[in-house]
Design a protein that fits this description.
With 317 residues, this protein is α/β, with parallel strands linked by helices. 44% of the residues lie in helices and 11% in strands. A six-stranded parallel β-sheet has the order 2-1-3-4-8-7, with helices on both faces. Strands 5-6 form a two-stranded antiparallel sheet. Strand 5 and strand 6 form a beta hairpin. It is globular and about 50 Å long. The protein starts with a helix and ends in a 15-residue tail after the last helix. The structure holds thiamine diphosphate (TPP) and magnesium ion.
């Protein structure tokens, strides 16, 4: 990874973190529409993978979709406006946090049905293969989704047809309140790749340099016609499952241990030590991000509400 890429990735992770910290504050201090699931702690996965994607590549996301959407290149203003259900939101204010999408950057949608994005990415990958322009599709999904039937169907078909799809499982140890090992009899979800005859790789999802490196290999392989890869990123969510859920099923000590491996702090240290970047050089980036988030909120606040009749424009029949 070169210096410029490293700084870009740092800024992207920070944008996602600060965006969600602001959202947390907004949900506490004023009436906000809907609910939300925070990506806090998992930023290295979306950013490390999406760094290899072009605007015309595709991703599918989950109920925990803010990070994927921002990492794929959606504007902070449009995503924030969507959180406020405003007409300027990337779904015209009609999707909200759990259905956030931005087709203009290839973000096909945050899909609240667990596992449902997996076969959609397979379909997107099929379209990439038919068009023959070297595009790829990525599916982000959780450890819980890996035990849904859609996981098998989506990966099996992609493997048989050698589709350009990267299946990225974000194993954050919990599906809502259920610990991974209560519902999964093996250590690594990536081991399942062998039953589809595709490569499976286990990655430290808290370390963006590793995610970036392994995603690079998988994306290259897909673009060159080598077929899909199953990439499992071991990670952790720092906040509750959704909005204010207290995570009483997790030990405080477990949370503290994972927080020591915060992907953003780790990478910042890496920038200072390995890239010999001066702290002062990071300050303007950090200030820029704060400003961008404030501007996004101001933009969302002054944006108009959708016309109630607008919903008719978006019904498919
Ligand atoms: C098919 C389906 N079953 C159950 C739910 C309820 N539900 C929403 S999120 C969630 C947990 C998903 O866990 P995981 O896939 O690990 O993702 P994470 O929340 O950890 O990011 C559940 C059970 C759902 N939305 N869809
Ligand atoms: Mg999970």
């Amino acid at each position: 990874m070169d210096r410029e890429t490293a700084l870009t990735l740092y800024k992207k992770m920070l944008q996602i973190r600060k965006f969600e910290e602001m959202l947390y504050h907004l949900f506490l201090t004023r009436p906000m529409p809907g609910s939300m699931h925070q990506y806090n702690g998992q930023e290295a996965v979306a950013v490390g993978v999406c760094a290899h994607l072009n605007r015309d590549d595709y991703i599918t996301s989950t109920h925990r979709g803010h990070g994927h959407c921002i990492a794929k290149g959606a504007s902070l203003k449009a995503v924030m406006a969507e959180m406020f259900a405003k007409q300027t939101g990337c779904c015209r204010g009609m999707g909200g946090s759990m259905h956030i999408a931005d087709f203009s950057v290839g973000m096909l949608g945050a899909i609240a049905i667990v596992g449902a994005g997996i076969p959609i990415a397979t379909g997107a990958g099929w379209s990439c293969q038919l068009k023959g322009k070297g595009q790829v599709a990525v599916s982000f999904f959780g450890d819980g989704a890996a035990n849904e039937g859609a996981f098998h169907e989506g990966i099996n078909l992609a493997a048989v047809w050698k589709l350009p799809v990267i299946f990225v499982c974000e194993n954050n140890l919990y599906g809502f309140s259920t610990h991974y090992r209560r519902v999964t009899p093996i250590d690594n979800i990536a081991d399942r790749a062998s039953s589809y005859g595709i490569p499976g790789v286990v990655v430290d999802g808290m370390d963006i340099t590793t995610v970036y490196r392994e995603a690079g290999k998988a994306v290259k392989r897909a673009r060159e016609g080598g077929g899909p890869t199953l990439m499992e990123c071991k990670t952790y969510r720092f906040r509750g499952h959704s909005r204010f859920e207290k995570s009483s099923y997790r030990a405080q000590q477990e949370l503290e241990e994972w927080k020591k491996r915060d992907p953003i702090i780790q990478f910042k240290n890496h920038l200072l030590e390995s890239f010999k970047i001066d702290k002062q050089e990071l300050l303007p980036i950090e200030k820029d991000v704060e400003k961008e988030i404030e501007e996004a909120v101001a933009y969302a606040e002054r944006s108009p509400d959708p016309d109630p009749d607008d919903y008719k424009k978006y019904i498919y029949a």
